[in-house]
Amino acid sequence: MQDSSSIGIVTPQVAHFSTPLKLKSGAVIESYDLVYETYGTLNADKSNAILICHALSGNHHVAGYYTEHDKAPGWWDNMIGPGKPIDTDQFFVIGVNNLGGCHGSTGPASINPKTGKPFGASFPVVTVEDWVNSHALLADQLGIFQFAAVVGGSLGGMQALQWTLAFPDRVSNALVIAAAPNLTAQNIAFNDVARQAILTDPDFHGGDFYAHDVKPKRGLRLARMLGHITYLSGDVMGTKFGRLLRSGIFNYGFDVEFEIESYLRYQGDKFAGTFDANTYLLMTKALDYFDPTHHHQNGSLSDALKPATANFLVVSFTTDWRFAPERSREIVQALLDNERNVSYAEITSSHGHDAFLIVDPYYHDLVHAYMNNISLGAAK
User: Which residues pair with 150 in a beta bridge?
Assistant: First the structure.
């Protein structure tokens, strides 16, 4: 049974681009598709558009259901819909699957028109900057010059931040949630361990596993299990699973005994059955590469964020140790150094990095209030 407050039945759409896109790496994609969904109605002057940027394992299906009997709504259905914090009675919301993804947009599993085979390992490395550039081309195709807001959590928050740097005139507000200006060494290390699990899977075949009609599920499963541990807080894991044993006794072996083991293996298996291993490699690498200070001689984040002119809401969560609150405060301080209009909230939550996806009355009220104060149809 669907949630009565949901946007309801939605249908993905495909935007095709035949003009080559030059990527930050120097590689060129000759033509490509972006899959997207929209919710709400675009107003007459096209000033109420909101872009939702997705995190590592997300996609364009942000809200609503695909069928009446669909049990799983879009990944941010609790945030987006009629009367919700991002109110589709007021805003025209766009969710887009990033280039390199595995949910319809052109990616490693797509057929390379030059070979008639999946791109596989030949699909180029994509960056946050490349995604934002492609988002802008999608906006052009939809006739939208300026977004009332660009919103994202985690890797999506990095994209929202990049939007304000690459296209400052096209963003009125940016909501940067559970994000950081760049990854710490620890985060890069986690990503590399996850990638090594995939790269060393005997079914990976150098990224061209499609030709062998296999999937490197073992590696992808391990990568997801590792990632999932980092998305939760110790408190949540302790409260939810503790040291509970499935059978109530020690079996003195290496099969699943603790409930947390069972949970992680379930999450890993579910993910490995639906996600593409090459996409996982690309998404984690995009996380590693993003760093607005990279081309600034003194590495100053304040200097790097100088081009941004949007209004900002930056949100962090107290138990998010992967993108800790102090990383969000680095963004806030850099914006304040440039005398930008920025609001910051640190939400008390026990849910770790995943907190940005979970219903929390204070968090949702905060976003709702911020969105309600956005002036539509007026220059910022």
Answer: 51, 174
User: Which position among 47, 60, 320, 351 bears the catalytic label?
Assistant: 320
Q: What is the pLDDT of residues 193-212, one digit of tens each?
A: 999 999 999 999 999 999 99
- What is the pLDDT, as a whole number, of residue 5? 81
Collapsing DSSP to helix, strand or coil, 173 comes out as: strand
Q: CA 286, CA 228: separation in Å to the nearest integer?
A: 18
Give catalytic status of residue 130 as yes or no: no
- Are residues 271 and 231 in contact, defined by beta-carbon separation less than 8 angstroms? no
First CA to last CA across the chain, in angstroms? 41
Distance (Å, rounded) from C-alpha 136 to C-alpha 142? 10
**Residue 6 covered by a domain:** no
Three-state secondary structure call for residue 240: helix
Which of these, 287, 265, 3, lies nearest to 128 by C-alpha position? Answer: 287
Residue pLDDT, tens place only, 45-58: 999 999 999 999 99
Task: Give the dihedral of Cα atoms 222, 224, 226, 231; nearest 10 deg.
Answer: -170
| Structural tokens at position 258 | 């603790």
* Coil vs helix vs strand at 197: helix
302 is a catalytic site residue:
no
pLDDT tens, 14-42? 999 999 999 999 999 999 999 999 999 99
pLDDT, one tens digit per residue, over 278-307 is 999 999 999 999 999 998 778 899 999 999
Pair 93, 216 in one domain: no
Domain that holds residue 279: 187-285
pTM: 0.96
Which parts of 232-276 fold into alpha helices (H)? 234-240, 259-274
Domain count for the chain, please give it. 2
Count Cβ atoms below 10 Å from residue 67 Cβ, excluding itself: 8
Identify whether 228 is a catalytic site residue: no
Q: Which of 235, 253, 285 is the C-terminal boundary of a domain?
A: 285
Judge if 149 and 298 occupy the same domain: yes
Catalytic residue among 134, 154, 233, 349: 154
**Dihedral sign of CA atoms 48, 355, 153, 68 in order:** negative
DSSP result, 327-341: HHHHHHHHHHHTT--
| Binding residue positions | 224, 354
158 shares a domain with 26: yes
Q: Which residues sit in the known binding site for substrate?
A: 224, 354
